[in-house]
Give the backbone structure.
Amino acid sequence: MSSGEQQQSLLLHEQDAGGIVTLTMNRPDSFNALSEAMLEALQRQFDAIATDESVRVVILAAKGRAFCAGHDLKEMRAEPSTAYYRELFARCGRMMMAIQQLPVPVIAKVQGVATAAGCQLVATCDLAVASKQARFAVSGVNLGLFCSTPAVALSRNLGRKAAFEMLVTGDFISADEAMAKGLVNRVVAPDELDAAASALAASITAKPRVAVSIGKSLFYRQLEKGIEAAYDDAGNAMACNMMDEAALEGVQAFIDKRKPDWKS
């Protein structure tokens, strides 16, 4: 089997006519652990999507009982060295950052357990919809390994005390707790998960791609700035957005009391 075929089987790809891409992790027997091959497959797909203007939204899903159990621990133990681990976690970090840097939103569709780097993956996605059966934990501390890299994404989603409690206890939280803490947006019955993710994606694709792209980029940039710099950046982004054809049409349509005729 070629490298491309292996990656295709690890990560399934579908795109509908509306520009919604669904990437489905397909290692159910390994709880969709982030092996080196899975990291490469995800990175390759995100890199391709970054330059594909036909894509409007990405849904990240998984086969089996688990969404993602984090790193592949058997693979990690096979080659123990500081250099190897640094490179592995750097590769994982690059993949996570690729999600944030995409010009389109990424929705995690969480049907089962998400632990350690799998929980980090949910936190990194821009939005998340979860089944009531889903559970979340950053459980590395139970193995003597503090989930330092998951802490980066988790602490940017949850309040500090809630994030730190998860990190130092390794305890699971329910889908409802995850929503209350800010890790996921919506919790639905298992048989409603597909429809809920699709509805959220459709709500996004109904808006101009350029406005969503400008907004996503600005959203993450301003979070890392002081308030004065954030307002400067946001004002500039909004001024540029206002001069785009989609915004000009949208505002004129509001004035004319009609629906906007957006081209994309």
Notes: The chain has two domains: 3-205, 209-256. Strands lie at 11-15, 20-25, 57-62, 66-68, 106-110, 113-115, 127-131, 135-137, 173-174, 186-188.
